[in-house]
Amino acid sequence: MAYDSAPTQLTIWLAVISAGLIGTIYLIYDGSKPGIIVGDPNLIKQIMVKDFHIFTNRRPVKTTHPIMSKFLSSLVGEEWKRVRSIVTPTFTSSKMKNLFHIMKNSSNDMLEKLGKVAAEENGEIDLKKLYGGYTMNVIAKCAFATEADSEFENNATQLFTFPFWRKFLDYTVPMWWLDSIKFTVLPQGAMDFFRSITVGLINQRVRTNQQHTEHYHDFLELLMNAKRLGSGEISKSIKDIDDASFRKETDDEKTLNQNALTDTTTYDGKKKLDENEILAQCVLFFSVGFETSSQLLAYCTYCLALNPDCQETLHDEIVETINSNQGELNYNMVPKMIYLDAIISETLRLYNPVLRMERQASENYTLGSTGITIEKGMIVGIPVWALHHDPQYYPEPDLFKPERFLAGNRERLVPYTYLPFGTGPRNCIGARFALLETKIALIKVVSKYRFVESKTTKIPLRFLPVGRPLLRCEHIAIGVKKWL
């Protein structure tokens, strides 16, 4: 179909009306290129799961950079399947259990800061700075096996605060010209810094055979030792990860997810990751995980401060669970905190960091029974924020109500209206890590400190201008007190 023709838009509009999907499907334009937004849950399932083989790829990334082009999020087709199938087993429960102690020990500085603020009269704290330090520490240790010193923080900051014009050039300027001037969206200096750290660590471990000792259980070691597994082992890994997800998948969905990685035609004989692929996943893991996790923690704590009854219920659950194990927190206790899970689930619904997901059609595709044809190369957007705030699925959507996700209520949620980590085979591979990191931090801080509204707490939160890939708010300040 001709995207820019008025008859085509009229045809789509009439199809939407006849299908009763007004408000859930509409056309957009990225510059002169058309796209389509699909917000109907049944059609989302078709795109993200059932017909995943047609929508395997995300929006193309224009780069030939030796590291950025190897990001798992940038890869397409068979190359994505190969890397994803190798990386997937690094996020199973046994691997996360090995990372648990790193996360747990990274909370000490955070608790010390809270203690100082709680000792002050009317003391308050900037949540973004508090949790930013924690998540940077966790990922620095897990992904790069190093402490987050000032040099590390400065280079990390460059990855997240580069000016908008860099992204604008990436979208609008032909790749051949960008390559000719050696342009990359992410600053070259920061990329070189992380490359130097990672290559040095890899070489050190290879020389001394330290990758085979029991001293390292970080993400870098997991990637160095990761290799292409058989289809049965991949299926077990996917099932293990799915069992810890927010939304339990049906048997047919699990089969489709497993087939997406195991039904592959060629891997060019490469069963392990090369040096650039390892470095790419470390940088991606860091750049994606740092800000999203710190913001999630900030939003969680903000919601608790404004909902003291929920905070007290959570505190009681945490204290009771920890006391049942002689005051010690271990990995197996975290899943037992059901209300904690509900708190995080509702926060992700209310303030999900990713506003919209995207997939690209690899061939012409008829969208369900709507009569709409999505042509090859077209970008399909899934409006996560709109779904999470739709009163049809979540009554009083702007209210913080963790009970939506407690047993009995969670099962009644309409499938594919809650997408905090995406869905289908190309969902967020680091979801389990992010959840564990978030839960440990909340367990630590809520067990000792109570958060309250302060004079500078903003109600409601104010968000930075649209046009950014992630939801970002302004300053989040709340008061801190010790539990009586």
TrEMBL record:
Pfam families according to UniProt: p450
Positions of transmembrane segments: 12-29
MF terms (GO), sorted A to Z: heme binding; iron ion binding; monooxygenase activity; oxidoreductase activity, acting on paired donors, with incorporation or reduction of molecular oxygen
Binding-site residues, heme: C428
CDD domains: CYP3A-like (cd11055)
InterPro entries named among the record's database cross-references: Cyt_P450, Cyt_P450_CS, Cyt_P450_E_grp-I, Cyt_P450_sf, Insect_CytP450_Detox
Cofactor: heme
Tagged with keyword Membrane: yes
Top-level taxon in the UniProt lineage: Eukaryota
Keywords linked to the UniProt accession: Heme, Iron, Membrane, Metal-binding, Monooxygenase, Oxidoreductase, Transmembrane, Transmembrane helix
Family designation: Belongs to the cytochrome P450 family.
Name of this chain's protein: Cytochrome P450
Organism of derivation: Rotaria magnacalcarata
